[in-house]
C-alpha cells in the first residue's frame, strides 16, 4: 500500500462571475467589453471578469456592456 498526499481541489481560482484579484502594485487593467452568442442568447462580458445577463436582443446586451463601462469609470492612462 502506498501513501498518497491529498490533491488540492481543481477548478477556477475565483468563483464564476467574479473578477480575478489584482496583483498589489499593478495598475488596474482597462475594461474591454464584447458580446458572445450562445444559442439564441447574447452575453456581454468584460476583460475584468464581469458577465452580463443572457439576452435575446443584441441591443440589450450592448446596453449592458455600456452600463458596465460607465459604472467602471475612466481607466488610467
List key phrases describing it.
two-stranded antiparallel ribbon; 1 helix; single chain; 77 residues; 16% strand; 2 strands; alpha+beta
What does this structure look like?
This protein has 77 residues and is an alpha+beta fold. 19% of the residues lie in helices and 16% in strands. It has one helix and two strands, in the order E-E-H. It has one helix at residues 58-72; strands at 33-38, 41-46. The protein has a two-stranded antiparallel ribbon with strand order 1-2. A hairpin with a 2-residue loop joins strand 1 and strand 2. Residues 9-15 have low confidence and may be disordered.
Radius of gyration: 18 Å
- What is the mean predicted local confidence, pLDDT? 77
The major sheet is characterized as: 2 strands, antiparallel
Distance between the termini: 59 Å
Order of helices and strands: EEH
Amino acid at each position: 500500500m502506498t501513501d498518497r498526499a491529498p490533491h488540492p481541489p481543481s477548478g477556477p481560482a475565483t468563483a464564476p462571475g467574479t473578477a480575478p484579484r489584482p496583483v498589489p502594485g499593478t495598475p488596474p487593467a482597462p475594461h474591454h467589453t464584447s458580446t458572445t452568442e450562445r444559442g439564441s442568447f447574447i452575453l456581454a462580458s468584460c476583460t475584468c471578469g464581469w458577465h452580463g445577463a443572457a439576452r435575446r436582443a443584441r441591443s440589450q446586451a450592448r446596453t449592458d456592456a455600456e452600463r458596465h463601462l460607465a459604472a467602471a469609470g475612466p481607466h488610467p492612462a
